[in-house]
Amino acid sequence: MRLAELSERSGVTTATIKYYLREGLLPPGRRITATQAEYGEDHLRRLRFVRALIQIGKVPVAAAREVLAAVEDESLTHHQRLGAATFALPHGPAPDENDPAVATARREVDSLMAEVGWRRDIEDYGPAPAYWTLVTAVAALTRLGYPSSARHLEPYARLAAQQAVHDMDLLEAYDTPLEQAGAAVALTVLLEPVLLSLRRLAEVEESRRREAVNHSA
Amino acid sequence: MRLAELSERSGVTTATIKYYLREGLLPPGRRITATQAEYGEDHLRRLRFVRALIQIGKVPVAAAREVLAAVEDESLTHHQRLGAATFALPHGPAPDENDPAVATARREVDSLMAEVGWRRDIEDYGPAPAYWTLVTAVAALTRLGYPSSARHLEPYARLAAQQAVHDMDLLEAYDTPLEQAGAAVALTVLLEPVLLSLRRLAEVEESRRREAVNHSA
Fold this sequence. Notes:
Chains A, B: This is Transcriptional regulator. Chains A, B: One of its GO terms (molecular function) is DNA binding. The structure is a homodimer. Chain A has helices at about 5-10, 15-20, 40-55, 60-70, 80-85, 100-115, 130-145, 150-170, 175-215; strands spanning about 30, 35-40, 120, 125. The first copy, chain A, has one domain (about 5-215). In chain A, helix 4 (about 60-70) runs antiparallel to helix 5 (about 80-85) and helix 5 crosses helix 9 (about 175-215). In chain A, strands 1-2 form a two-stranded antiparallel sheet. By secondary structure, chain A is mostly helical. Chain A has 9 helices and 4 strands, in the order H-H-E-E-H-H-H-H-E-E-H-H-H.
């Protein structure tokens, strides 16, 4: 296909495709005239992946190049390739180690992860980026005097485990490691506002339900 | 208590407390000298609520004044008071009605809500703000070609209903409607990064679990 069709089918503008070609995020097409090149299905798949990473995931171009190399590295396991893609996503602020609420939060998060059976450290890597985001978020609850103990958070962790099962089921509908890694990035990010607004709607419903129960009691 | 103690116990600086007093978000203290006033437990409770709304919830001062009036209005039900507080929270962008993906997303969201038994319209109000945020978020999935049908979203809605049960259980530990409404605002906001990072950690764990199953298969 020509550049225009590649743009149409990927939803990425031709200017952006040219930028990705210059940055080496896409291999050059097969040149057919001095000014035109031909692109194949492989370009389309790779372009969709780069779009997921950069446009949806907001991963910087330099990091995207490393992620692409990892996702296409056949010596890595599928699990490692998904990790390479999703760990590149921007994450929240790192915790301030001098804050006493952070020390408390780390103890609670570690005890929560032990309780639900999640490993904290990833081989050769240490904790996932989300571990530090979680510690920061739990420290904010602690500092402001809201419930933040492992016991309070455990029901949410168990529900998150069920969300993750659905997340991974959605990924299995994609064929190649590249497509799965792209979908992992896109769905991790795009489902976040969906999940948060579902929770807010569910809170309205649960509040109404409890009101009705109290009225009839 | 004096202003300094009110500041210490609420975690709100004295400058901010003076600002809330000038804005009428806190009633004046009992004047004891020309320059000093005495504040009570009621001031502290109200200050904690205002802090939750403005500092945690990022609700503008004018809106906070209306929310306070609603939360202290004894003619309203408990459910209505919680709604007055949480609906004032800033919400995501409204959907663009001219976007065909938005029309598709509305159909899917309406069918999802019907499936899980949530009412879309709130008496005299229409849909909750989170309904529009959800439509916008689902439209983004639709537009980019990711799974966004009611069938795909239903498992997440059922998990959100369980999150809401825990959310409301946490609120019931607070005594007064004012404290519950403040906790509703604070926990809605402060638990969001907790829930999102728990999901990302759970995804790592689920990916590892599937890898282990595949290896042993």
